[in-house]
Amino acid sequence: MSERPTEGMNTMHMGMDEILQQLSSLKDNSESFSKEKDADPIWQADVTALEAAISILSALQDEGINDAEETRDIIEDYRRQAKQIERMHTKYEVKAWPIKKDSVYHCPECNHRVPPKHTYCHWCGKKLGGW
User: Is 51 found in the same domain as 18?
Assistant: First the structure.
């Protein structure tokens, strides 16, 4: 049986190896309970969930992630990049109709004048359409 962490141990400071070891110990314990006569099905559900968690964390560890804080940082970086990509997609790939003011067309993004029939604003790069 694996060594148990000390009481009150802060999981924020546990490394990925320690987290995986503790999850494996929990999985082994749940497995032993699931094999008992008239065992509650929750134990097998716990085994399945722990196997999934171990698999996910092992994949992160294989990519060089060493602790929970690093994992959260990567997830936050991913969210920021996804938002940035969405903004860029909207600006550069989604057409917007130029706004006509006083017989002159203006970019809907930056409000600079744009020549008729142009597909992009020369000032900000917004994709134009609807001509």
Answer: yes
Between CA 120 and CA 123 the distance in angstroms is 9
Closest CA to 10 of 18, 60, 29, 75: 18
Query: pTM here?
Result: 0.59
Alpha helices by DSSP H, listed for 36-67, are 42-62
Q: Residue 107's domain spans which residues?
A: 95-131
Model pLDDT for residues 55-70, shown as the tens digit of each residue: 999 999 999 999 888 9
In Å, how far from its chain's centre is CA 15? Answer: 21
Q: How far apart are CA 17 and CA 63, in angstroms?
A: 13
Distance, in Å, from the CA atom of 62 to the CA atom of 20, rounded to the nearest integer, reads 12
